[in-house]
Amino acid sequence: MGKSTKKRIFSGIQPSGNLHIGNYLGAIKQWADIYADYDSVFCVVDYHAITVPQDPKNLQKKVIEIAKIYLASGIDPEKAIVFQQSHVRAHVELCWLLNAVSARISDLQKMTQFKDKSSDGNINISAGLFDYPVLMAADILLYNTDVVPVGDDQLQHVELARDLAKRFNHDYTNVFKLPEAKILKQGARIMGLDNPEKKMSKSVKSELNRIELLDDPKVAMKKIMKATTDLGSEIKFDIAAKPGISNLLVIYSLLAGMEIKDLEKKYTGKLYGEFKKDLAEIVAEFLTDFQKKYNQISDKAVLDILADGACRAVPIAEATLARVKKAIGIS
């Protein structure tokens, strides 16, 4: 069998919190739509999850849950590598090597997510939270990644991976490919239902912020009906003037496969209540179908898929790691 000529994509999600439709529409749906056109590698990034406290008993359950969500979204493990990050030791080894020879404290101090999480001056947060962008760079670079499908909030991390790769290639030898980010024009940033000025988040305390992928469809419908809208009654896409209805239009468009301009025409002269009722039904239909697929996948099947995925990932990762070690003189 000949070597694949397809470009490679890599991405992953942490097994923490409850994934929501923002995660699905901004990332996972994108993976499922394009993965067959690439040599695809998808990871459950459990080492990233432990940069903040996790319940050890719950962590492995969450790993299985995330993998099931990948599969229920349409990713075929026969056509893509799906694995658990901690099962491939090269991730942490390359992270250390990049820390030692390429990463700079000045790089990490610029990272937006760290600045947000440390803005209260807390010096007792873990060093891993500061350094995890280097681990993310290692995740990407290990697999000779061409394309990283991400939400727009992750662009900075892909840029860091590129910067570290360039620095290493300049200082030693040309080992790393320079990955490119791939972002959806719409859906890359689904906003909170209760606050359309901020991104939908699995870490926000209020459950009214998000529609979780494993929400009861009836609960999800109620969340849509309670979603924040705007002054006036016109159903029009205008992020600056009407962020609430614009966010709901994006969700509607992506789940129903309709253009926003067509939705604007459909609801001309109609009120928010009718629009939200229709959207609630579309969300419920999506969740019902998604959860049916999710519940058909057994935990044992997932564990077998993750084990097989790790076996397929290790040779690729180890080959890259060997080239890095040789370049810096510690092979």
From TrEMBL:
Positions of short motif 'HIGH' region: 15-23
Broad EC category: ligase
Entry's EC annotation: 6.1.1.2
Main localization category: cytoplasm
Binding, L-tryptophan: 139
Record Gene3D superfamilies: HUPs (3.40.50.620), Tyrosyl-Transfer RNA Synthetase (1.10.240.10)
Subcellular location: Cytoplasm
Motif ('KMSKS' region): 199-203
Catalytic activity: tRNA(Trp) + L-tryptophan + ATP = L-tryptophyl-tRNA(Trp) + AMP + diphosphate + H(+)
InterPro entries, A to Z: aa-tRNA-synth_I_CS, aa-tRNA-synth_Ic, Rossmann-like_a/b/a_fold, Trp-tRNA-ligase, Trp-tRNA-ligase_bac-type, Trp-tRNA_synthetase
Family: Belongs to the class-I aminoacyl-tRNA synthetase family.
NCBIfam families recorded: trpS
Protein name: Tryptophan--tRNA ligase
Lineage: Bacteria, Candidatus Falkowiibacteriota
Gene name for this UniProt entry: trpS
